[in-house]
Amino acid sequence: MMADSGSEEIAVIGNTDLTSAELENNIKNTMVEIEKWTSLLRKMEISVGEAEKRTGKNTVNMQEIYTVYLIETRPVDAVTEGIIPAPDSLWRRYSEFELLRNYLLVTYPFVVVAPLPEKRAEIVWHKLSADNMDPDFVERRRVGLENFLLRLASHPVLCNDKIFYIFLTEEKGWKEMVYETGFQAKADSRLKAMNAAFRVKNPDKRFTELKHYSDELQAVVSQLLRVRARVADRLYGVYKVHGNYGRVFSEWSAIEKEMGDGLQSAGHHMDAYAASVDDILEEEEHYADQLKEYLFYTEALRAVCRKHELTQFELEMAAQDLASKKQQKEELVTGTVRTFSLKGMTSKLFGQETAEQREAKLQVLEQQIEEGEEAVKEKNTESDEFVKTAWIDIEHFKDQKDRDLKEALISYAIMQISRCKKGIQVWTNAKECFNKM
Amino acid sequence: MSAGTPKSLASSGQKPIQEICHPLGAEETASVLTPSPDVGNTITSIGGKTTRVEFDLPEYSVRRRYQDFDWLRTKLEDTQPTHLIPPLPEKFVMKGVVDRFSEEFVETRRKALDKFLKRVADHPVLSFNEHFNAFLSAKDLNKRLGLALLSKMGESVKYVTGGYKLRGRPVEFSAMGDYLDMFTQKLGTIDRIAQRIIKEQSEYQVELREYGPVYTTWALSEAELQGPLEGVASCMANCSSALDELTQDMSEDFLPVLREYVLYIESMKIVLKKRDNIQAEYEAKLEAAAFRKEEKASCTQVPTDVEKCHDRVECCNADLKSDWDRWQNNKRQDFRQLLTGMADHNIQYYEKCLAAWESVIPLLRDKQPQETETEED
Q1: Over the stretch A289-322, which tens digit does the pLDDT of each residue have?
Q2: A332 to each of A162, A339, A371, B195, how far by Cα in Å?
Q3: Which of A92-96, B58-62, B82-86 holds the top average pLDDT?
Q4: For A100, A393, B174, B231, which has the most beta carbons within 10 A of its beta carbon?
């Protein structure tokens, strides 16, 4: 059973007499045992606590302002009786998260790697700022980054990755460590392979279907997000205009005797109604973010399908190569030329080859055939292995997706219920005021 | 629909009516559309019951056209010049702008005519008017129409456009005028706001109509999520219909009544003007008499026509004050009804949406194999 992402309540017992050095020792010891656990979260609380602005020089030596995020970790069993020690923490900027993700994509191509939250705010309804420095956007991104880390930490394969662990625990030198793994070269060749055009003869049908599904999902969720933003925009307009009632009722109440009080109070309720939409829509952004995560997930799905195609293609190429070599050997042995070759032509023109020459060729070919068979066997294993591990992860992903999206829909319905209840409340209050007129 | 219970009024000192019985309630039954040879005239059936002794029969049912209402109103203005006569809905409607045969238009007009009759019926003086009686019970009003046309340019016009200049208007009447001006302004603003809301809601509706179906499209690609997504889609369709009903209610119930009130205000302003003119006439006559008095030093008596004028002023002021009180009271009740109606429409809208969303929750939760988390409610 795969471990869930999301916070888990774990009871901890500890010893208040531990010094910080001993505490650190404990942590170091538990680090060794990390590999044994399927979920990093069993051992470690992870959170992205805050965000801060920094200034610095970028790669072209120009001043830039960027945001850094505080990553806090605390070994779960280091929490002592009643006293919770301060978490370890370090600062990371968005580009470092990107580097981590790219590293994981390259290193574990059979894994559907969780996506990062948006770098820039897109598909927003217009009242919400599209500015990257806007505190609400930064806050939502902070939440998204924390979610990203929690997804990785609860993934049965990824959570054991050393680079990931160092990302969480050591601020300096992490980048260099990543590059030392030689992942850049892999990343480049992966990029090339992703963009290459090739045709696979016998792809696994499940992957073809999956690719089709991820395309559909991407299209429909993009559209959903766009329309939702427009709906939010319009809803904002409806609520805000009611604020005008507030003003005019107030003005009107000034010229009335008995009706004045009722009108005035009703006006206040109209003002409250108009003001309530801001919070309502801010909350809905959370729903949009949940949808966006799965929109971005489709890219990871497609990447895995692509990798399968690539592996399958390489297998097919190797098999094809082997087949042609075997063909050539047969022709050489039987003396029949079934396929046209320039060599064959030239040998006809310039005379037949000697028996020794033929023997040499045969030997080379047999060597090549042997190597070829090894290669095909290897590719076959590779392909099978990939299909197997990828499909386990894909099934895991599907379950997670169904669960998460169902929860998202439920929370969206709950938001709507809350909005309706508020609406009923406000208008009931206003009605009471009108009745007192 | 709006043939509801007659309003009981806090009328000032009109005891005789209250002693009789319940005030007359003119209850409209069906509106009958009958295209006639000339360009469409809608005929209204009026059915009513009365316990009043002036009427021959306790029940009656007549058919009347807009012209007849117009006749009645003119007659009332002529015969009760010092009183506030309730307004009629607009007579002329631009062709091409509004469909005079559309259900909405006919219904709106019917309600306004119904209101007119009720207001007259509730009035302690107007309700006893012989023309009102005739209107409600006479089988055939046609004979009187000819006369009506002739007398159209009658007394009421004289009172409105009287050429007398007013010297000192009593403060209370000035205050009434000021109030009416400000009130008109506020009503105009409310009208604009209501229209704007309807517009914003329509635009919201357009987007909502596109939003729901996307969930349906998505459901097609899904297995486990298909049910929940379709549930959400149908929920949104329900909210969409509820919004349609709200917008329609506001257009049909709220705006027309609001607009019709502007006419009521205009009627009140006319009455105030009439009063001003009567007072001005009196002042002019008084001045002329005083001037003549100076010439004939012996005459100490106030001329009778001046006294008559004075009486008329006093009478007019009294009638106006009582009409004003009644008008204010009506206004208060009318607006209480109008605004609580608006609140009700909105409450109903939200209740429908709430029901839709609440019914979708069990559908969303149903298919989960294990419930490890507690309910979020």
Answers
A1: 999 999 999 999 999 999 999 999 999 999 999 9
A2: 53, 11, 19, 91
A3: A92-96
A4: A100
Pairing of strands B59-65, B43-49: antiparallel
Please state, in angstroms and rounded to a whole number, the distance separating the CA atoms of residues B5 and B17.
17
The full 3-state SS of chain A, as one line of letters, equals CCCCCCCCCCCCCCCCCCCHHHHHHHHHHHHHHHHHCCCHHHCEEEEEEEEEEEEEECCCCCEEEEEEEEEEEEEHHHCCCCCCCCCEEEEEEHHHHHHHHHHHHHHCCCCCCCCCCCCCCCCCCCCCCCCCCCHHHHHHHHHHHHHHHHHHHCCCCHHHCHHHHHHHHCCCCHHHHHHHCCHHHHHHHHHHHHHCCCCCCCCCHHHHHHHHHHHHHHHHHHHHHHHHHHHHHHHHHHHHHHHHHHHHHHHHHCCCCCCHHHHHHHHHHHHHHHHHHHHHHHHHHHHHHHHHHHHHHHHHHHHHHHHHHHHHHHHHHHHHHHHHHHHHHHHHHHCCCCCCCHHHHHHHHHCCCCHHHHHHHHHHHHHHHHHHHHHHHHHHHHHHHHHHHHHHHHHHHHHHHHHHHHHHHHHHHHHHHHHHHHHHHHHHHHHHHHHCC
Interface ipTM above 0.95: no
Count contacts between A and B (CB, < 8 Å). 141
Q: Give the global pTM.
A: 0.79
**Alpha carbon distance B221, B244 (integer Å):** 30
Strand partners, B43: B32, B65
In this complex, is the C-beta atom of B148 within 8 Å of any C-beta atom belonging to chain A?
Answer: no
- Quick one: average pLDDT of B121-145? 77
Give CA–CA dist B190/B192, Å, rounded. 5
What average pLDDT score do residues B232-251 get?
Answer: 95
Substitution target in A216, A220, A223, A394 with the highest count of B β-carbons within 10 Å is: A220
Preferred mutation among B201, B347, B367, B373 to probe A, highest tally of A CBs within 10 A: B347
**Residue type for B312, please?**
R
